[in-house]
Design brief:
The protein contains 38 helices and 22 strands. It is α/β, with parallel strands linked by helices. The protein folds into 6 domains: 266 residues, 5'-nuclease (Rossmann fold); 48 residues, no CATH class; 206 residues, Nucleotidyltransferase, domain 5 (2-Layer Sandwich), CATH 3.30.420.10; 99 residues, Taq DNA Polymerase, Chain T, domain 4 (Up-down Bundle), CATH 1.20.1060; 106 residues, 2-Layer Sandwich (Alpha-Beta Plaits), CATH 3.30.70; 136 residues, DNA polymerase, domain 1 (Orthogonal Bundle), CATH 1.10.150. A hairpin with a 5-residue loop joins strand 18 and strand 19. Helix 19 packs across helix 21 and helix 31 packs across helix 32. It is globular, with a radius of gyration of 29 Å. The two termini are 36 Å apart. InterPro entries: 3'-5'_exonuclease_dom, 5-3_exonucl_a-hlix_arch_N, 5-3_exonuclease, 5-3_exonuclease_C_sf, DNA-dir_DNA_pol_A_CS, DNA-dir_DNA_pol_A_palm_dom, DNA/RNA_pol_sf, DNA_polI_H3TH. It catalyses: DNA(n) + a 2'-deoxyribonucleoside 5'-triphosphate = DNA(n+1) + diphosphate. Its EC number is 2.7.7.7.
């Protein structure tokens, strides 16, 4: 599919960013973050001498991938030194409750530093400071030197460092983190993250914050009052009495919290900035280190790179050091795999499959392959395109495979070579390569692709299904190797083709960048020469078939056939059609929202100009710096390498704190600009011309619980409780003559808690249709229903939902604005009244400890990798996951059962024009002709309520309107 062989994993959402063009970009790797992610991502592995090495393996793999992807000239790996640092001097409780690292991890710390040195990368740490402080310091130094900085980490604490010239990169998701992503996480721009954290606190690091204030509330307060000090100074203006008093009582605690979370960007640098460069590794030293750990697969990769570079000759073995034992290609023992929460793996099949790939350029050759498909009854299919958006992508070619190693590629829309791009001078018009006209090829293929006697196999086949449907071909029946893997091993690992080929076939696939390039030199697949296209595309179909042959029999062996056949496979065409349809967006409404923000920004801009005494471009840091420091003489200012004054948020904040109104108003203007750019403008850019619709992509194999997730654009995260969010939802509209229908399950997760834990009192309340939160309050606090107050009901509601997510007394106390002791008493009373829930929770945790996973009511496995972690905090988190996963997973299963049944029910009832548009957690959104909306709504409600038979009723609530907000 012309990407990295799947679009359904987070890893492929964004290409790894290219380094700065002049080679001056600096990459700062959060080594400590890598260590713990690696340790918890892999099952326990030991060297022959018994030393644990799973974290070393994961860390080495990450470094190898990072260096290959980035090709950067300046990289440094930064580690924490010791637990205590300067923060403990003024707040001894900082991180005091964190348990010691797991015993299996302790001996790996030194090996990981040794691995860093073996890769010849600078290794940084400094006693008295955290790794985050060193990263902040080097980011500042590099930024001041005019260099671009990328922080390789997903740690939220480092999001405060994001600014022009400094960004983050999540190494596992391969996802850049810039101002937009920070805003999505905290609700404020990066320069206000520390203020939000100071209010919200952090129970993991023991940062106290202000009781009763979470991230959302903190973001609202900081947005309204500008910064922490302004908020605390004006705390008496807060309308809510409890919140006002908390801010007054805990003001000093908030200031301490800000000091704790604020990173020190003036730590003494252990090495000069100039020394943070990538050196050519000593290959012998690196291979010897990797062999000593038993990492055979990585050794093979390094040797392959050395052969490619000419460092060693083909067949030569650079070291006689004996292998120390099994590594990644040898699966851990079943006992170890289960203990780590990973699925039990089978030994990888042999990799010596002969590759017989053929380029098909005429109909006679294609006929031979179609006859092979009729003979075998099985055909693996994959498509290549020039885009990852199936609604608009061009079908460039199709690959087929009928036996392992036997595959072909059918080019359909490859372009003539671009001589100018290669630097060649030619006066002749290059000819397009020989290929079958797309219409003719698809007509020949259609007979086989729609033949019910031939099983078509794809990987992430939802994408291919949409492409074929656009050309009038409805592929059926199908199997999907990605979804089979997902059913078998869920969230235990990713399900992209590349990863599964390594895991199950011990085969490294051809990288997409090897055929299409990267960065400025990247070309679309229709420009790839046919010899390269053949090798890459035919391999896609070949590997898909081979994975299917390995994975499909396991469905029977592991009793997962029902999950695959009833919950996953039927949804491929359903979701493909849903994505293809898209949802109509009122471009004008979004434009008006953008205009409203623009007007407010213009008002602020006018005010800023009045303070400045003249007009200037407020969005120009250079002009702003000249105004502030040359003309208004507000300070000396600091000039960067370009000679312009720095006007980043820290500079403006300092000026604002000194009472300079112009600086505060510029900060306000930037905040509105961020809202405008992130939401109202960006969504307009994704509307497809002509249809006026946006087409989100639903990832079918991305979550541990079976939930779908939405990307490009993400329509599942539009806020529904804020006025701005509701305004955005109003821009999603029905087509002329149609209405939108929103139908969602009412309190489905609470109903499932009552069902799965068999809580008699709650089940009876649901059966009687009583307000469940009032009923809970009555049961727990002994208050008759006719004497129920809104405050008591609010507490019961918080406990009801909090119990599902394993809320603690500390967390509930913060939510309700009460002391942890009082909150613990509420939780204790809840469990005493609903003792069945406590029994079920303990049984579920015990099952997870024994099996490494939990199971939904419909048999889906949700893996819990940290359930045996020796770190108490991480183990407690895994236990909360074990309780929540079967509830959320069962809700997802019920929704999928409903989605699979709805299209057939609509068709049977004659509602041919009713279309399913979106699935948002517990909600389905439809578009229907206005005169059919009421009847279609009633039908879909009945299907959803009948999707499962439980001891509690499933209730679906419907709304109809001209836009999404009205319908919801």
């Amino acid at each position: 599919m012309s990407d990295e062989k799947t679009t359904d994993t987070l890893q492929t959402a964004t290409e790894a960013p290219a380094p700065a063009g002049d080679g001056s970009g600096l990459y700062l790797v959060d080594g400590s973050g890598f260590i713990f992610r690696a340790f918890h991502a892999l099952p326990m592995l030991n060297r022959p001498d018994g030393t644990p090495v799973n974290a070393v393996l994961g860390f080495s793999n990450m470094l190898l991938k990072l260096l290959a992807d980035l090709k950067a000239s300046a990289v440094a790996v930064v580690f924490d030194s010791k637990r205590l640092n300067f923060r403990n001097e003024f707040y001894p409780e900082y991180k005091a409750h964190r348990p010691e690292p797991p015993e299996e991890l302790k001996p790996q710390f030194a090996l990981i530093r040794e691995a860093t040195e073996a890769f010849c990368l600078p290794c940084l740490e400094l006693e008295g400071y955290e790794a985050d402080d060193l990263i902040a310091t080097y980011a500042r130094l590099a930024n001041e030197a005019g260099r671009e900085v990328t922080i390789v980490s997903s740690d939220k604490d480092m999001m405060q460092l994001v600014r022009p010239g400094v960004r983050m990169l999540d190494p596992l998701k391969n996802k850049p983190i810039g101002p937009d992503e920070v805003f999505e996480k905290f609700g404020v721009a990066p320069d206000r993250v520390v203020d939000v954290q100071a209010l919200a606190g952090d129970s993991v690091d023991n940062v106290p914050g202000v009781p009763g204030i979470g991230v959302k509330t903190a973001a609202q307060l900081i947005t309204e009052y500008g910064d922490l000090e302004s908020l605390l100074a004006r705390a008496g203006e807060i309308k809510q009495p409890a919140r006002r008093q908390k801010l007054i009582d805990f003001a000093e605690q908030a200031r301490i919290s800000r000091r704790l979370v604020l990173l020190d960007d003036h730590a003494p640098p252990p090495k000069p900035l100039e020394e943070l460069r990538v050196r050519e590794p000593d290959h012998q030293k690196l291979i010897d280190f990797l062999r000593a750990q038993g990492f055979r697969t990585i050794v093979s990769r390094v040797e392959a790179e050395m052969r490619k570079d000419g460092t060693i000759a083909d067949g030569a073995v650079p070291s006689a050091t004996p292998s120390a034992g099994p590594a990644k290609t040898a699966a851990p023992s079943p006992a170890l795999a289960a203990e780590a929460g990973a699925p039990r793996s089978r030994p990888a099949p042999p990799t010596d499959v002969e590759q017989r790939y053929e380029l098909v350029q005429d109909l006679n050759a294609l006929a031979v392959w179609l006859e092979r498909a009729r003979t075998t009854g099985v055909l693996a299919v994959d498509t290549e395109t020039n885009s990852l958006t199936p609604a608009t992508a061009t079908l460039v070619g199709i690959s087929l495979a009928t036996e392992p190693g036997l595959a072909c590629y059918i080019p359909l829309a490859h372009q003539a070579p671009n001589a100018a791009a290669s630097g060649e001078l030619s006066f002749e018009t290059p000819e397009a390569p020989k290929q079958i006209p797309a219409e003719d090829a698809l007509k020949a293929l259609q007979v086989v692709l729609e033949d019910p006697a031939i099983l078509k196999i794809g990987h992430n086949f939802k994408f291919d299904h949409q492409l074929f449907a656009r050309h009038g071909v409805r592929v059926s029946p199908i199997d999907d190797s990605m979804l089979i893997s997902y059913v078998l091993e869920g969230g235990a690992h990713g399900h992209g083709m590349d990863e599964l080929a390594e895991l199950h076939l011990a085969h490294t696939t051809i990288p997409y960048k090897e055929v299409c390039g990267t960065g400025k030199n990247q070309i679309t697949f229709d420009r790839v020469p046919l010899d390269k296209a053949l090798a890459y595309a035919a391999e896609d179909a070949d590997i898909t078939l081979r994975l299917w042959r390995v994975l499909k029999p396991r469905l029977v062996d592991e009793r997962m056939v029902t999950v695959y056949e009833t919950l996953e496979r039927p949804l491929v065409p359903v979701i493909a059609d849903m994505e293809s349809c898209g949802i109509r967006v009122d471009r004008a409404a979004l434009a008006r929202l953008s205009q409203d923000l623009a007007v407010r920004m213009a008002e602020i801009e006018k005010e800023v100009h009045q303070h400045a005494g003249r007009s200037f471009n407020i969005g120009s840091p250079k002009q702003l710096g000249e105004i502030l420091f040359d003309e208004m003489k507000l300070g000396t200012g600091k000039k960067g390498k370009t000679g312009a004054y720095s006007t980043d948020s820290s500079v403006l904040e300092e000026l604002a704190e000194q009472g300079h109104v112009i600086a505060q108003r510029v900060l306000d203007w930037r905040q509105l600009a961020k809202l405008k750019n992130t939401y109202t403008d960006a969504l307009q850019a994704q509307i497809v011309e002509g249809s006026e619709r946006v087409h989100t992509a639903f990832a079918m194999a991305a979550t541990n619980t079976g939930r779908l997730s939405s990307t490009d654009p993400n329509l599942q995260n539009i806020p529904v409780r804020t006025e701005e969010g509701r305004k955005i939802r109003r821009a999603f509209v029905a087509a002329p003559g149609h209405k939108l229908i929103s139908i969602d399950y009412s309190q489905i997760e609470l109903r499932l808690v009552a069902e799965m834990a068999d809580i008699a009192a709650l089940k009876q309340a649901f059966q009687d249709g009583i307000d469940i939160h009032a009923a809970t309050a009555s049961q727990v606090f002994g208050v008759p229903l006719d004497q129920m107050t809104s405050e008591i009901r609010r507490k019961a509601k918080a406990i009801n939902f909090g119990i599902i997510y394993g809320i603690s007394g500390f967390g509930l106390g913060r939510q309700l604005g009460i002391a942890p002791g009082e909150a613990n008493a509420f939780i204790k009373a809840y469990f005493e009244r609903f003792h069945e829930l406590k029994v079920w929770m303990e049984a579920t945790k015990a099952f997870a400890r024994q099996n490494g996973h939990v199971v939904t009511l419909f048999g889906r496995r949700c893996y819990i990798p940290g359930i045996h972690d020796k770190n108490a905090a991480r183990r407690a988190f895994a236990e909360r996951q074990a309780i929540n996963a079967p509830i959320q997973g069962t809700a997802a299963d019920i929704m999928k059962r409903a989605m699979a049944r709805v299209p057939g029910a609509l068709k049977e009832a004659g509602f041919d024009e009713v279309r399913m548009l979106l699935q948002v957690h517990d909600e389905l959104l439809f578009e229907a002709p206005e005169d059919q909306a009421e009847r279609a709504s009633a039908l879909v409600r009945a299907v959803m309520e009948g999707a499962a038979t439980l001891g509690v009723p499933l209730v679906a609530e419907a709304g109809i309107g001209g836009n999404w907000d009205e319908a919801h």
